[in-house]
Amino acid sequence: MTEKKKPGRPPKAKPKAETKPEIVEEKQPETDVVEEKQPKTLNTSPENPATELVKDIEKYGDPDKWKLLCKASSKSQGWMKSTKAMNIPGFGCIVQIFEQQGDKLATSITHIQGVGVYPSVHGGYRLCGHAQKNEPEEVI
After folding, report:
1. Quick check: 79 pLDDT over 90?
2. DSSP annotation of 51
3. How far apart are CA 97 and CA 107, in angstroms?
4. Which carries the bigger pLDDT value, residue 1 or residue 122?
5. Is 110 exposed, middle or buried (0-12, 13-18, 19+ CB in 10 A)?
6. What is the 3-state secondary structure (H, E, C) of 82-113?
7. Is residue 90 left, alpha or beta, with left meaning phi > 0 and alpha meaning psi from -120 to 50?
8. Half-sphere exposure of 31 (CA within 13 A, CB side)
9. Alpha-carbon span 73 to 71, nearest angstrom
10. Sheet strands (E) in 3-91
11. 21 Cα distance to chain centroid
């Protein structure tokens, strides 16, 4: 004999068996060593090259093509500013300005036609037109 359904009531649902989600823990291999991040070296210069101050430096190409024009930094305040230039034969040069304030970085780059990077009588390098490279520098 078949059961008659009562009008207006839905059939009773059977209770579902409780299932617990399976927790899978991933174990890190014991060979993973997390090294402490070293503070950024701010005082690099031609007199204090990065290759001597930073143990694990990696280079590609010739980073010495960039000549440091000027730089200022404060380790205690965590800031650094620098201006570098690179000669482009037959064109002029590219100038890069870089600033760091804590973890914030800013950089800009531009090209200057007909100008080159030349040694300065005051040490370091300077920008000047190719025709003026042998003229005396003004003291500011």
Report:
1. yes
2. H
3. 6
4. 122
5. exposed
6. EEEEEEECCCEEEEEEEEEECCEEEEEEEEEE
7. left
8. 0
9. 7
10. 67-74, 79-88
11. 42
| Among 76, 62, 70, 19, CA closest to 45 | 70
Residue with tokens 């780059």: 109
Mean pLDDT of 114-124: 86
Q: What angle do CA 45, 47, 53 make, to 5 degrees?
A: 70
> Quick one: tokens of 48?
């204090």
Residue 122 token pair: 């005051």
The CA dihedral of 128, 131, 135, 139, to the nearest 10 degrees, is -20
User: Residue 28 and residue 2: Cα distance in Å, rounded?
Assistant: 61
Tokens of 124: 């370091």
pLDDT digit string, tens, across residues 105-116: 999 999 999 899
pLDDT digit string, tens, across residues 37-57: 666 666 677 666 777 777 787
The amino acid that residue 25 corresponds to is: E
Closest CA to 135 of 124, 115, 120: 120
Contact (Cβ atoms closer than 8 angstroms) between residue 109 and residue 96: yes
